[in-house]
Design brief:
By secondary structure, the chain is of the alpha/beta class. It is built from six helices and three strands; from the N terminus they run H-E-H-E-H-H-H-H-E. A three-stranded parallel beta sheet has the order 1-2-3, with helices on one face. Helix 2 links the parallel strand 1 and strand 2. Helix 1 crosses helix 2. It is globular, with a radius of gyration of 15 Å.
Length: about 130
Amino acid sequence: MSNSWQQAFAVAGTDVGEAYCSPAVCDAMNKLYKRLVQQRGFAVRPCLLTRSRDGLWLTSWAVRNPSKVSGIAGIYPVFDWTTYPGILTAAKGYGLTAEELEKQADRLNPIRNIRELADAKIPVLIIHSAID
């Protein structure tokens, strides 16, 4: 029999500043995931909830770790840094120039790698509208 808190809904996160979905964000998320699973007994495959621009880092982490995700729910999530915040701003979060980031877009832009989630059959629920 498990503790009742293990069957509850929990919210956890980490402050990564305005790094969007850079590798530094994924490193921070890996540390959070490890702590929550190993030290706190959280689910090995949680369902992730994202809102707005947090969709960038959450989806970026999920496409790199599909075996650690049971599903994704998003409320007005952003998946493409070319539409928000734009490549010039996103490049700053990556510590790259816009040109350098554009050259790596196929590898680093979450929307261009979303197939990883589809291939892993990760269910996704998205609530969207014309305005965020």
